[in-house]
Amino acid sequence: MNIANLFKIALKALANNKMRGFLTMLGIIIGVASVITMLAIGQGSKKSIQSQISEMGSNRIMIQPGADMRGGVRQSASAMETLKLTDYRNIADETRFLAAISPTVNSSGQVIYGANNKPSTIYGVNQDYLEIRRYNVNDGSMFTEQDIASAAKVCVVGKTVVDELFTNGENPVGKVVRFNKIPFTIIGVLTSKGYNSMGMDQDDVILAPFTTIQKRVLAITHLQGINASAIKEEYTQQAIDEISEILRRNHKLKPEDADDFTIRSMEELSSMMTSTMNLLTILLASVAGISLLVGGIGIMNIMYVSVTERTREIGLRMSIGAKGVDILSQFLIESILISVTGGLIGVIFGVIMALLIKFGANFPIYVQTWSIFLSFGVCTVTGIFFGWYPAKKAAQLDPIEAIRFE
Fold first, then answer.
1. Residue 184, SS3?
2. Which end of the chain is less congested by CB atoms within 10 angstroms, N or C?
3. Are strands 68-70 and 176-179 parallel, antiparallel or unpaired?
4. What region, left, alpha or beta, does residue 253 occupy, with left being phi > 0 and alpha being psi -120 to 50 degrees?
């Protein structure tokens, strides 16, 4: 019996039991749609986090003083004074894999303009900090090397600071604000960046020359940190190795001595977040895949029922010359048709559900082509796997016994 006739017989058998066929497909439809939607949610979240980390500077390197033990008590890193301007200058002069580097010092306090005030943090940096953190000046300008050399009382502010201090909508450039009683002239406003993936407001920031914060606000000579960015993300580790070598040399550390500094990179955070999201995606897909398994069991159950109901028909076909392989193919085709049709409908519903979540709930969604092919391929294999045994049972029936079956 040729394939075309087998397809006709299979389609006719499914047409005779439309409702039963649809209900059998329903398990596959729900399973495929769930897998596609769950994978889209997982991949969308992963892409969103990677994008936000990239906006923060995916090649960013953060150098902090290391914690130390004094009198049996571990000191906080902020209390240490191991980073000096010499370290910053040596790193800037000697490293080959850095695109930008900035010393950092900061202080928290109240920033005041007229009758308005808000708690904020002022960061002492240089011009490279804009490149490292992917900031841009939207209005006005950034402070200059001359401002740094003279410890000028100037600053650049973020949009959140502007919105909360200048409530009448006036242009903040040229205005004088006070930070812990010290006047600062605003010379620029940063382009808004919004919140990052960790929920931090990136616009609640005040930038000033690091020398100004050192001398006029904190009265210190050491650095609280150094921020840098590698030429490219893939060169981050080489840059870290060079920085570590320079700092150990400057701090006269012996080979057996532990580092008195800490180096972290956004690459570490990105890798950790990616691994977490990959694990979450696999978990979501596995939970959704259970419904696909249930759908496959439903196909096997219905095919068993179909074989039992059509036992006499099978006996008649075999008695007039149909071979076991023809009977096997007939029921296997029915099983595959149910799973493939259910898979196609499930793919459509899965994509629609993903889009509804994206635009309805404003959740990051990313439907990947491979997830559609994977879901469709799995449901096809499910149809073959769960349809094989009932079809094989039908093919092994004895024709005489099948004709006698009541």
1. strand
2. C
3. unpaired
4. beta
391: Cβ contacts below 8 Å, ≥ 6 apart:
303, 307, 327, 328, 329, 330, 331, 332, 335
SS3 of 379-396: the string is HHHHHHHHHHHHHHHHHC
Residues 386, 294 contacting (CB under 8 angstroms): no
Query: Contact 143/208 with Cβ under 8 angstroms?
Result: yes
Q: Where would I find the beta strands (DSSP E) of 114-239?
A: 116-125, 137-140, 154-157, 176-179, 182-190, 206-209, 225-230
Per-residue model confidence as pLDDT tens digits over 132-173: 888 999 999 999 999 999 999 999 999 999 999 998 888 999
pTM: 0.62
201 CB-near residues (< 8 Å, 6+ apart):
160, 194, 195
The secondary structure of 155-177 as a DSSP string is EEE-HHHHHHH-TT----TT-EE
Helix axes 311-319, 324-360, angle to 10 degrees: 140
If residue 76 lies in a helix (H) or strand (E), which one and from where to where?
A: none
The DSSP result for 25-75, as a single string, is HHHHHHHHHHHHHHHHHHHHHHHHHHHHHHHHHTTEEEEEEPPEEETTEEE
How many helices (H) and strands (E) are present in the chain, helices listed first?
Answer: 13, 12
pLDDT tens digits for range 223-237 = 999 999 999 878 888
Backbone angles phi, psi at 236, to 5 degrees: -60, -45
Q: How far apart are CA 354 and CA 288, in angstroms?
A: 14
| Alpha carbon of residue 105 to chain centroid | 31
